[in-house]
Amino acid sequence: MARKTPAPTGTAAEVIAELAATADAERAVHNTRYFKTGPGEYGEGDRFVGCGLTDIRAVTRRHRRLPLDEVDALLDSPFHEHRLAGVIVLTLQFKADAALRAEILARYLAALERGAINNWDLVDASAAQILGAGGDEALWTTLTAGNLWQRRAAAIATFAPLKAGDAGPSVRIATLLLHDRHDLIHKAVGWVLRDVGAKVDEAVLLGFLDRWAPEMPRTTLRYALEKLDPGVRRHYLTVPRVRADTPSMRSNSNPSEPKGDGSLFVQT
Fold first, then answer.
1. Which of 96, 125, 154 is the last residue of a domain?
2. Which of 19, 83, 184, 202 has the smallest count of CB within 10 Å of its CB?
3. Dist. CA 130–CA 115, nearest whole Å
């Protein structure tokens, strides 16, 4: 007999109260700087309770069966740690309950689109576990044309097939995002490419670098080279630079982009 899935239980208010009990005012002040919350920065206006990640994960484990409407309430909170708890609960439920995965994916995409998932740590804690686990490269490709966090999610999602030994999606999504203007995309793409070479096939990474190194953003290139031998790194760092003035650069030209644009998955 199949094991019955336990009923959802708990409320967003209970999660928020438990997080508040672990809050540290000094950490909250530090995080407002660390996560770039000033005017014109990518996290503009974000607010912090001051919780540590270990405490957040402990709270989410206790509330792993939170109803999805309550998870949405966390995702729509103005406080960063509440939203991080929300995405972590989604990853736990996505892994535990196959019957919920389609609904969780839909809610996750909606949260990305409305700007509820709106900083790099929220994306990095969830994109591979939810978007990546679904294996839908066509979806990731669509996200590369979206807002900042949708684009970063597309890159991070490819860690799922990469972990299984398939570098193809990572290389293809990296190519689509290669000329993005935002530093957070440069870092994500470089991180993915580094693991293509370090964990799957160095020859694939070298082939990519042979084609694209002259026009890669410097941050992306340096991240991608991190695990290569010093002589190889020097070679690619001294390749003559080529200016890449492409449509993808022009379309992603606003560095701040703090909120979703609501354009990719609107149903008509």
1. 125
2. 202
3. 17
